[in-house]
Amino acid sequence: MRMHILKRLLPSARAAITALALVGSLNAASAAENPYGLIDANTISVGTMGDAKPYTFTTADGQFTGFDIELFLNVAGRLGFKPEQVIFTGQEFSALMPSVANERFDVAVAAIGTTEARKQTVDFSDGYLAGYLSVVTSDKTMTDAAGLKGKRLGVVQGTLQEIYAEKNFTGTDLVRFPDNNSAISGLNNGTVDAHFLDYEAAKQYSERYPDLKIAVNIPSFDAPAGFVVRKGNDAFREALNTALHAAMQDGTWKTLYEKWFPGSPMPKEYLPKS
Question: Is the overall model pTM greater than 0.85, yes or no?
Answer without folding.
Answer: no
